[in-house]
Automatic annotation (TrEMBL):
Belongs to the ELP6 family. One of its GO terms (cellular component) is elongator holoenzyme complex. The lineage of its organism: Eukaryota, Viridiplantae, Chlorophyta, core chlorophytes, Trebouxiophyceae. It comes from Symbiochloris irregularis. GO terms for biological process: tRNA wobble uridine modification. Pathway: tRNA modification; 5-methoxycarbonylmethyl-2-thiouridine-tRNA biosynthesis. Transmembrane segments: none annotated. This is Elongator complex protein 5.
Length: 209
């Protein structure tokens, strides 16, 4: 979804990409196939890549500091470009932190980034929802999100033309988290299902049918 988000942005977005398992070269190759040049973004000061390995148990406080420093590195005052933090994946980070209180504090700090810097930060967080014991914080995170993309397998099984389905859930049509749309006719919750197809060069998302 990151390439789709980058292409949808007005102007040149600024991105902090945190990977928990995959090296820089993996993302460079994957994004290049979809028309996004990660090397150029890094060289121009529009992107910062935070490499694995994962932090040691109890290291989430230091990781948050690293994330904040990376955002501040590419953020400039009166910056008109979108500022994006992408974490792939939160599930791997959770597996390294046994303490529930420390983990929830980390999630609250991430959510607070949306208001910390002028103009806010768009959080793009990849989560696996099939991990036993993660249901509580997964539900909290989805409830806190404005947009949730849920990737699903095809109910009918394998198809050469369709890889799977994506359910898009729009939970508030406000541009700022927590604000309620002024028009009573605007739905607070909206969902729609799309098909998607993976290829070597792109991800295509299209209507059902």
């Amino acid at each position: 979804m990151l390439p789709c988000l980058l292409r949808a942005c007005t102007g040149q977005p600024k991105v902090v990409l945190l990977s928990t398992t995959r090296p820089y070269n993996h993302y460079r190759a994957a994004l290049r196939r979809m028309g996004v040049k990660l090397d150029a973004m890094v060289q121009q000061g529009h992107a910062v890549f935070i490499e694995p390995p994962l932090p040691e148990p109890g290291g989430l406080r230091q990781l948050y500091t690293t994330i904040l420093q990376a955002l501040q590195k590419i953020w400039t005052e009166n910056c008109a470009q979108p500022l994006i933090l992408c974490i792939d994946t939160l599930t791997d980070l959770r597996a390294q932190e046994a303490g529930q209180q420390v983990w929830m504090q980390f999630l609250l700090q991430l959510r607070g980034l949306a208001h910390l810097l002028e103009g806010g930060v768009c959080l793009m967080l990849l989560v696996h929802t099939d991990i036993e014991g993660d249901a509580v914080w997964n539900c909290w995170l989805q409830h806190s999100a404005q947009v949730v993309w849920e990737v699903q397998a095809l109910e009918s099984g394998h198809s050469a033309a369709i890889t799977g389905q994506v359910v898009c859930k729009l939970q508030c049509l406000s541009l700022q988290p927590g604000l309620i749309p002024s028009s009573a006719s605007v739905p607070l919750h909206y969902g729609k299902t799309f098909n998607y197809r993976l290829s070597d060069a792109s991800v295509d998302i299209f209507e059902l049918g």
